[in-house]
Amino acid sequence: MTQDEALAILESGASVLLTGAAGTGKTYVLNKFIRRAKKAGKSVAVTATTGLAATHLNGTTIHAWSGIGVHDSIDKHMATKLGKSRQELIRKADILVIDEISMLHDFRLDMVEEIVRTVRDDQQPFGGLQVVLCGDFFQLPPVNRQGSRQGSFVTSSQAWERGSFTVCYLEKQYRQVDDQDYTDILNGIRAGFLTRSQLDILRARQQAVDDPFATKTRLLTVNVDVDTVNEAQLDELQGDVHEYDMETHGGKNYVEQLKRSCLAPERLRLKKGAQIMCIKNAQDRRYANGSLGVVVDFEKSTDYPIVELVNGRTISMKPETWELMDGDKRRAQLTQLPLRLAWAITVHKSQGMTLDAARIDLSRAFVEGMGYVALSRVRSLKHLLLDGLNGMALRVSPLAKTIDKDLRSRSEKALQDFAEHLKQWQADEDSGQHAPKPEQKSELEIDQELFDRLRVWRAQRALKDGMPAYIIAHDKTLAAVSILKPRSEDELLKVPGFGTKKVEAYGADIIRITSDSDDN
Fold it and tell me: N or C: which end of the chain has fewer CB within 10 A?
């Protein structure tokens, strides 16, 4: 599927899984869809599974937006205990975007779905929201920590089944477009098979000569290695060390749980010239979780670091607070500067990035997909240095390969199901008539009884025809029918979402239902 075809389907109002290999432009399409949706007057909740990934979309984490936080389960009162402002954000949203979906547990998507449905007081999947999931299941899977609830990809969730997601599988490669050998190697990793010559090409990058003057990001697999590199780089800098110790409050187990869920170090050591990454979203939006920069000075009165971010903004950093809440109870709290050293980062934090050059060590890769994520960050082989590979480095999940076959098939079917819409969308795009316009809210009220009857009919027809209900008509379309109450095929053709083929297939049933409603 092309990027334009995916965008067209997204703009149909369907709930979508946007997927494809690393470098096919998923984030590009997503950003374009978000911009156009906002221009059209939609309220778009932009989220991702990690704070760093969320910064690529100027969003927040799905855990924060939905209010599930670090919890592994929810009770029946959790939704009502959310703050009023959080509930209002959920209620007013038209579209929910979740990026880097491969890293979200199936049970957490179910938690989000239940929270949203409850807060919106709407029993449709996700409370009637259009939901857009984006990611690649060949990349990093959900992290199953010892002692925590275990889970799998979101395709195993009840929310996935309830949501009737259309699959848009992007095919064309853009990141490694100028290096076909590298593209073939990455595709081979996805397929689970590399030729001997491809392995030789990859291993040759372990003997490549490093350019000491070239700026490279180091990608490592475990936090302890990242910390070692960052501390060594810090020690090479001239000047005094400034240290900041974390303050904690709460029960020991709760404090440890909170420490694991955030990136704040217990003792932060900084010098002038230290490369840093912000690890929390600022309330005033001056910096975001994932913002990179350099320490340029320290305040004389407070000793707080002054940081120049890569966007040119200079900020005096102040301590921030993280909390672990259990309903209305604060179980733990920690306070620390929202910074950590960033000469090196973990592969997990690199997912979603594009790097001009990188030095990568996969000698301690410990999970399927880790090597693929790291290697696919780089544009070409000539800008890649390898410090090591182990047996796990080039493996991908067997489950991901099984899921991939199904997703490709569903993407092909989507092109057929949306053929009429795609043709009209492209015509409108070419003529300039497709420029987003603010959506006008109807002053007419939905006939709820008619709307419910139409949804029951749609479910029965979908079961009879063996197809997803949204292919027959989206809720937005049925809502329009329940407002306009068409009594003829000509009137039904005026309802957004109904073309000639759909009127031929379903018009008689719908007109009968609307007529019966008027008669009642």
Answer: C
pLDDT of 435 above 60: no
Residues 293 and 343 sit within 8 Å (Cβ to Cβ): no
Which one has a higher pLDDT value, 70 or 86? 86
With a CB cutoff of 8 Å and minimum separation 6, the contacts of 351 are: 50, 53, 100, 103, 139, 140, 373
**CB of 66 within 8 A of CB of 115?**
yes
Kindly tell me if the per-residue pLDDT of 76 is higher than 80.
Answer: no
> Per the confidence metrics, is the pTM higher than 0.70?
no
Please give the residue that has the higher pLDDT: either 360 or 440: 360
Query: Please, what is the angle between helix 180-191 and helix 196-204, to 10°?
Result: 120
Burial grade of 181 (CB within 10 A; 0-12, 13-18, 19 or more): middle
The full length of the chain comes to 520
CA-nearest of 261, 267, 306 to 279 is: 261
Bridge-based pairing of strands 44-48 and 60-61 is: parallel
Whether the pLDDT of residue 255 is over 90: the answer is no
Band (pLDDT 50/70/90 cuts) for residue 259 is confident
pLDDT of residue 267: 94
Report the alpha-carbon distance of residue 332 to residue 324 in Å, rounded. Answer: 5
Smallest CA-to-CA distance from 315 within 325, 304, 306, 324 is with: 306
Burial label for 455, CB within 10 Å (0-12, 13-18, 19+), is: middle
Tokens of 17: 């899984």
Angle between helices 500-519 and 448-465 (to 10 degrees): 140
For 44, what's the count of Cα atoms within 13 Å in the CB-facing half-sphere? 25
Cα distances from 69 to residues 61, 111, 112, 205, 277, in angstroms, run: 9, 11, 10, 41, 22
Place of tokens 């221009």: 39
What's the CA gap between 350 and 148, in Å, rounded? Answer: 24
C-alpha distance across the termini of the chain, in Å: 46
Helices 448-465, 475-484: crossing angle, 10 deg rounding: 130
Task: Round to whole Å and give the CA distance between 514 and 131.
Answer: 29
Classify 321 as helix, strand or coil. strand
Q: How far apart are CA 198 and CA 124, in angstroms?
A: 49
Taking alpha carbons only, the member of 166, 138, 137, 167 closest to residue 153 is 137
**Residue appearing with tokens 């301590």:** 319
> Cα–Cα distance between 465 and 277 in angstroms, integer?
53
Element spanning 131, H or E: strand 130-134
Other CB atoms within a 10 A radius of the CB of residue 118 amount to: 20
- The secondary structure of residue 124, as a DSSP letter, is S
Distance CA 239, CA 225 (A): 24
Give per-residue pLDDT as tens, 214-251. Answer: 556 789 988 888 889 999 999 999 999 999 999 999 98
